[in-house]
């Protein structure tokens, strides 16, 4: 009888062991797959602006071109350089955050003064016309944020809203108070995200498979970067999309600072 019980226990342990090895290997294979795809995407993100700059430079050095065309070429090269810098800066910033070397330079800011400015700069960065951004700020409170980091947050959200817009460039942003938190609701009316994919969207390197969609550039790092920044501010970000073709809403919750309780050394950051 004891041999039977012992055998059974051994069998269960063996099964559990096999299950864990299976889970571990599947995870490892998934991580390796994600990583390999990331390397391909990342290389493409570096190579394509570089190739474009090289082409403009070669054309300019070989052919005589008029001042207007020259100006246009320089403008395009500047755009490509900015694109390159953004990818490299993101990698460096993420690595700093992961190694816990990143110091968020947080200052006390007024929601009403700061957030419209941050959103405006992202809007200008991606050349979105005013009528495409509907912004409602319904909170008089204060939060403690690193402005540069939040600029990255909004730039990533705006960039994605355009990339995955499927032609509808409308963005709705609502900023309001809920309990002790500031809520930023960022909605687009683009391609939406399948329910299953919404669970993985903030994972490092994750990109939704888009075999049925035209090629959209990216590294799968943007939303991971955004989430790490929000976490560094004791906040939370979630995603909701009713489904494919029905748009996407990102919701950020950040702790509001009760200005009456603030430490005397706190100073309101200048704009
Ligand atoms: P990237 O855009 O470089 O692929 P992100 O981390 O920013 O990486 O986003 C991960 C994935 O989430 C994207 O590949 C895309 O499939 C999906 N996604 C992100 N934002 C949106 C959005 N606004 N609408 C639809 N899909 C989105």
TrEMBL record:
Keywords: Kinase, Membrane, Phosphoprotein, Transferase, Transmembrane, Transmembrane helix, Two-component regulatory system
Superkingdom assignment: Bacteria
Coiled coil: none
Catalytic activity: ATP + protein L-histidine = ADP + protein N-phospho-L-histidine
GO molecular function, one term: phosphoprotein phosphatase activity
Ranges annotated as spanning the membrane: 1-25
All residue ranges annotated as the Histidine kinase domain in the record: 41-258
EC number: 2.7.13.3
Gene Ontology cellular component list: plasma membrane
GO BP term, example: cellular response to phosphate starvation
Keyword match Metal-binding: no
Protein name: histidine kinase
Protein source organism: Caldithrix abyssi DSM 13497
First-to-last residue of the parent protein present: 59 to 329 of 334
């Amino acid at each position: 009888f004891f041999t039977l019980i012992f055998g059974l226990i051994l069998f269960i342990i063996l099964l559990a062991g096999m299950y864990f090895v299976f889970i571990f290997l599947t995870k490892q294979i998934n991580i390796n797959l994600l990583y390999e795809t990331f390397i391909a995407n990342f290389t493409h993100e570096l190579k394509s602006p570089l190739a474009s700059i090289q082409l403009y430079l070669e054309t300019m050095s070989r052919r005589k071109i008029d001042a207007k065309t020259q100006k246009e070429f320089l403008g395009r090269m500047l755009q490509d350089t900015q694109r390159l810098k953004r990818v490299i800066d993101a990698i460096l910033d993420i690595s700093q955050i992961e190694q816990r070397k990143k110091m968020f330079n947080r200052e006390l800011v007024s929601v009403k003064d700061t957030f419209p400015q941050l959103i405006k700069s992202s809007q200008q960065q991606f050349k979105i016309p005013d009528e495409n951004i509907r912004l409602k700020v319904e909170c008089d409170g204060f939060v403690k944020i690193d402005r540069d980091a939040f600029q990255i947050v909004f730039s990533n959200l705006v960039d994605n809203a355009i990339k995955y817009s499927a032609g509808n460039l409308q963005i709705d942003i609502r900023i309001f108070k809920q309990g002790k938190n500031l809520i930023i609701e960022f909605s687009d009316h683009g391609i939406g995200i399948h329910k299953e994919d919404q669970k993985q969207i903030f994972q490092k390197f994750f990109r939704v498979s888009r075999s049925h969609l035209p090629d959209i550039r990216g590294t799968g790092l943007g939303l991971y970067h955004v989430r790490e920044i929000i976490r560094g501010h004791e906040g939370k970000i979630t995603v909701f999309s009713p489904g494919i073709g029905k748009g996407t809403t990102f919701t950020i919750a950040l702790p509001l600072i009760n200005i009456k309780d603030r430490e005397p050394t706190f100073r309101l950051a200048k704009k």
